[in-house]
Amino acid sequence: MILTVTPNPSLDRTYEVPSLDRGEVIRATGERMDPGGKGVNVSRAVAAAGQRTVAVLPLGGAPGALVAELLDQQGIEVAPVPVAGATRSNIALAESDGVLTKINAPGPELSDAERELLLETVRQQSREASWIACCGSLPRGLAPSWYAELVARAHAAGTRIALDTSGPALLAALRERPDVVKPNAEELSEAVGRPLATVGDAVKAAEELREMGARAVLASLGADGQLLVSDEGAWFGSARVAVVRSNVGAGDSSLAGFLIAGGNGPEALASAVAHGAAAVQLPGSVMPTPRDLDPAAVTVTGEVPTDRVLKEPVT
User: Which one of 201, 224, 252, 292 is the catalytic residue?
Assistant: First the structure.
């Protein structure tokens, strides 16, 4: 079982519009509602793969009730942490030319009691977990050190933990040695404080995160592929993709694929790449099922192309 922790979940409403004209009345041509948050997406991807997952998340108000209902409909067990504030509602406006405009609400502020209840719920639910995946931004009321405390508690209980966050929360958690961290290229660049122009730059940055405490680094490099750096070495993975339809949740799908395959070594990287490549070829935030995967399109090598210039360099 893979346990996910999403401290700041959301109810995501997406409206399809012909174009976005400021100051005008815009009539939507389509709409959908999804449970949102990076950890929620990991659970959705794990469930789509036919594996058991439990989602721990603070939920409040009518939006929180809808998030729980939508997850239940997708076969995901929910361990809700009741909070006084309402779960945030995010809005996305998808134009016909593919441009996506997102409005993300800040979310509720958690009290000290709610903070402790969230940690205790993770402890209770993690007894059967092979991995805990902690993902996303922290809500108001949780200090940047909150993830560090969660990592320390997970390790004390003997559970492996994967972390997908950024900024001060990532840097603070590194001292507790998370088993794997999953930055994208921009987050990796931010963590080391310099631009990344080549795959070699990304490898060096990943090694620096390991020196700061991460036991392994799974880095998403966008269209360039994915990188895994651990005690066992460094591997680079990529996949042929026919058409990119949406990259929403693709990184979360990759992390799910990595953990489903054991969370270590080139086989897990190949699974991560296959899941990410499948996700970008599906509409919206739809998560791939085993039928959507194309392992034959994936290449993983220990000969990392360090001189390769990134198609989307981070400056």
Answer: 252
β-strands 88-95, 10-17 pairing? parallel
Report how far apart, in Å, the C-alpha atoms of 38 and of each of 45, 123, 197 are: 11, 20, 26
- pLDDT by residue (tens digit) across 87-137? 999 998 888 887 888 899 999 999 999 999 999 999 999 999 999 999 999
d(CA 148, CA 126): 17
The amino acid at residue 263 is: G
CA distance 232 to 167: 27
Helix H or strand E encompassing 114: helix 112-125
Q: Which residues pair with 13 in a beta bridge?
A: 33, 91
CA dihedral over 74, 102, 39, 150, signed as positive or negative: negative
Q: Give the integer Cα–Cα distance in Å for 239 and 296.
A: 9
Is residue 252 annotated as a catalytic residue, yes or no?
yes
Give the whole-angstrom CA distance, residue 16 versus residue 30.
5
Closest CA to 150 of 311, 307, 19, 5: 5
The pTM assigned to this predicted structure is 0.93
Cα gap 311→279, rounded to integer Å: 20
- In angstroms, the CA 68 to CA 57 distance is 9
Whole-angstrom Cα distance, residue 32 to residue 14? 5
73: tokens are: 């409909």
Q: 219 and 182 in contact (C-beta within 8 Å)? A: yes
CB of 85 within 8 A of CB of 10?
A: no
Residue 218: what are its φ and ψ, rounded to 5°?
A: -110, 105
Which neighbouring-strand residues pair with 165? none
* DSSP 8-state class, residue 137: P
